[in-house]
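Problem statement: downstream parser choked on a complex file, so we are re-checking the raw output for the F0G run. The parser issue turned out to be on our end (a line-ending mismatch), but while we're here, posting the original submission so the record is complete.
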Amino acid sequence: MSNLPHGVIATYREFLPVTADTPIVSLHEGRTPLIAARQLGKTFSPSISVYFKCEGFNPTGSFKDRGMCLAISKALEKKARAVICASTGNTSASASAYGARVGLPVCVVIPEGQIAMGKLAQAVIHGAKVLQIKGNFDVALSIVKEIAVTQSLEIVNSINPFRIEGQKTAAFEVCDVLGTVPTYHFLPVGNAGNITAYWKGYREYKEAKRISALPKMMGFQAAGAAPIVLGRVVNNPETVASAIRIGNPSSWKTAENVVAESAGTIDMVTDDEILGAYTMLAEQEGIFCEPASAASVAGLLKMAHAGMFQANDTVVCTLTGHGLKDVDRAMAVTSRPTTCVSAEDVAEAIKRWL
Ligand code: F0G
């Protein structure tokens, strides 16, 4: 075993609200790869550097694990009897895994038929109590908030401040690996917890003099679920990016402050733009992320076409979750059908293909 600390709490302990009494749970989350783009960027400006922060490499396949390890550790410290969350899928998958790890009961409330099958499978296999409701994420979250109070359960959605604390470690990693701060940081926005967390991380790193500047924070919502951009609650949010199908984000005001403070923006991208970026990442960069994650790259392309970048800008796009979570979407978007051939025709089929 290496002597390097495992997981984000051990690695960034001095920045996190843990004490000697906090029982630390970790599944070795964090230290995800920051992969340089090979194609993207070159097409619109050869002199900018683009990196993907691949959060799908976390133990349950999304960035949620960074905050969940801390939220579950603190729930244990408090001797909570169970935890609960509403989810578009990834939070429930992460809560279920970390809860299973320490034997803490987990209840997840999700919109029926609206979450990707891989994510539902994760909650099920880890043994969570899964309650599907007829209603969207916003409805699920308001129910969860009520029940958490009446039944004294610990909420592990990003309204739990420990989730934000854990998630801010992704910003630390970006700086540690780049050795500097990016000019721009692009990410998808749903409930707006992650953009809040990154900004907190960057600010704290600057206060600690680990970096000397701050990035501009660039958040992207899906056009059919863009309450912050439109300035009003969206009652029936709709997008192929089911992870960010949210009409009334919890961290709405904070996210607005983040873009104001960082001189960034919150904008929206269409489903076509999201799916275009999604397939482009898979085909040209070798990276399979989930549709919601590709909103960051769709945003980058939108800004590039608007002529935003200057020579030598460094851009990081967070790819929030792994593509294998939603294989149905991958099969639905491809225009290349698989071919069935008899075993003796394989050689001939390859000749024709090349
Ligand atoms: N990308 C993915 C893959 C997500 O699962 C989420 C949120 C986001 C982006 C947006 O992050 O909410 O912090 O702005 N998923 C939550 C969930 C809502 O329940 O898994 P955010």
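For whoever reads this later: The chain has 14 helices and ten strands.
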